[in-house]
Specification:
heterodimer; A: about 550 residues; mainly alpha; 19 helices; about 70% helix; about 0% strand; globular; disordered C terminus; B: about 210 residues; two-stranded antiparallel ribbon; 6 helices; about 35% helix; about 5% strand; elongated
Chain lengths: ~550, ~210
Amino acid sequence: MDTVTVLLLTFILSVTGLFVFIWSLRRSMFDDNPEAAKVIFSTGEIGHVEDPSATPEQRAGLQQVVIDSGKAVIDPSLAQQLKEELAERLEADRSTSYVCFIFLACAIVWLIAASTFGLISSIKLHDPEFLTQYAWLTFGRTRTLHLNMVAYGWCPMAAFGVAIWTLPRLLKTPLIGGRFALLGCVLWNAGLIAGLGAIAAGINDGLEWLEIPWQVSILIVLGGALIALPLVFTLRNRRVQHIYVSIWYMGAALFWFPVLYLVGKVPGVHFGVEQATMNWWFGHNVLGLYYTPIALGSIYYFLPKIIGRPIQSYNMSLIGFWALAFFYGQVGGHHLVGGPVPHWLVTLSIVQSMMMIIPVLAFSVNQHLTMKGHFKTTYYSPTLRFILLGAMMYTLSSFEGSFEALRSVSTVAHFTHFTVAHAHLGLYAFFTLTMFGAIYFVMPRIMSWEWPHPKLIIVHFWLVALGFAIYFVSLSIGGWLQGLDMLDPAKPFMDSVRVTLPYLEGRSVGGALMTLGHLVFAVHFVLMALRYGTKRVGPALLHKHRLPEQQAIAGA
Amino acid sequence: MESEYKLLSGAMVTLALATATLVVLPYMQLDNVPPSPGLKPYTEQQLRGREVYIAMGCLYCHSQQPRSQSQAPDFERGWGRAPVAGDYYYDHPHLLGTSRTGPDLFNIGARQPSVDWNLGHLYEPRAYTPGSIMPAFPFMFDLKDKAEPGDKVVNLPPSYAPPGKVVVAKQEALDLVDYLVNLNHTYPVDPGAQLPQLSPEQAAKDGVKQ
């Protein structure tokens, strides 16, 4: 089989597959306002804003913006039924509160640990004599610890927590099988701690993103599978006909991850250059088919929910989902542009990277149209500020990623800090900011307690937004200059190192601000868990039930 | 969408497609690639050194894949010809790398064959390359009052030598350097036959340019 045949075949298969799937779901596809988009609302709830992190004043302002936009029509005759359905939702929320709290608390611990190691690694790059006395503190290990704490600590714990909280709400049923998720959480974290210890001690599998020794990874695979079980049980007990778009994303991601990780870690199969293609098949898919869909699913839920308005075009989200599923999986080869791998593979990945523009556009246009006329809501809603910025950064990072895959751009940017900046645009500005927003929304419902210091949310937002702007701009510029210097044969290699120094220092400044923001967030989280501050009155219905047993967890 | 089975089967089909193209096809295509003629298997000590290379995370700053002359001036820097799959026959795991915070090391053995230079450079990179941001690895060396028989003493530039002490390389440093000085893929290969071969003069010149 020659190159062109393989390429054409795969491409045609992907595109045909995409159309077949969309065709198979064509029922009521061309309705203007399909029922499915309204699944996230209770009867009569459209037009009502929901942001548990907002103060009463903010909430009033938020509601006013939505009413002023004129698009929300509240039907008073449905008020009684709404009240009943909200009570049911409260039941669904309560069923997840314990499990979610555990996941989110783990996430916060990993966030702080990961930020610390990120900052240490960043300082080491412009101050190479910093902490060189011990092997476990050498750059090669602190950087790897940072990556693994983010990739297997903060991100999945936050993602699992938010997904487990969202699913019962969307399926209008209590969570079933939460114990499996808890057991999975324990196994996963045990595996992660053992894996990090191994990396610090210098025992690792030597593949980027797959460093944790495979013997330890068994725990993580088992944990991941256990965490996916409640999804299956809850889906089978659902009380809604439509499966909302968020569930496609989250459900698919929860199944994609164990397969990815299993194929990546299976010992004794991969060899030489083939291992490199597998490495980047995994490295890119863990971003594209795990973190990305969970964050996208969250945005598809929280954004319309906060402003009380169904998503603009439900069908566009359908195209967005399947296009992502068909194209994203094959883009990983662009990490090997110019490498000793089969050329057809790199070309295929570049083509599919460009095809990714389709789902990204579908998502971005859809969210923009939903928000249209409601942008003032970000002024009042602390949650929405994080979520909307995260959604915008998804668009930016995806477009940047598509163009970075092109040979001409990759020739400059590959092997430089530019790639690192891009990775953080995706995993931080998009994923992490979205998760911050989601946690601000979820926690008051979990704890039946409002955030004690709303001002801290604002401080958190501006610290991480400003810190990340400094981080991204300086590292992108520094990386690009580094790439240009490396391509100039007249310049010695050391020029490409020296040129980056001021930008690496800039990155440390940005990273320090981000870390500070995370500390503010963590302190606020702990204060809330310990139920400090005054209990302000939100919507009465949602605060009737206090959960006394929560006190025990909070103290732990 | 109303069927969870459609969702999950669809999700698995797309992932299978991706796995087929990026994992299974390369597996089939590369499975029978023989080692490049001229490539030698690693020795015991080199394999131990390779483990140190992985444990210290060298691969996060150093690639092992020079790019072709049509794409980048890697060859002119003395990093060597573009590699072929057969050059990686003995590599488990692969160490292609994704970053060049430091230079490519695919042919570091041809550029810097001196064991003494490499040992000293690991102990204190800035003694040899001013402005380098490579971490120093002092924990891979012992400081002794007097060298014992069998010790490998590191000869440092006087201003960097610790006063009154000798720096002795631990076994892990010796292993790592043995791996590095034998990283040499300058032998000719078929697909690269049209490329000029790296001459020792040029290697020396580029070594200085480093």
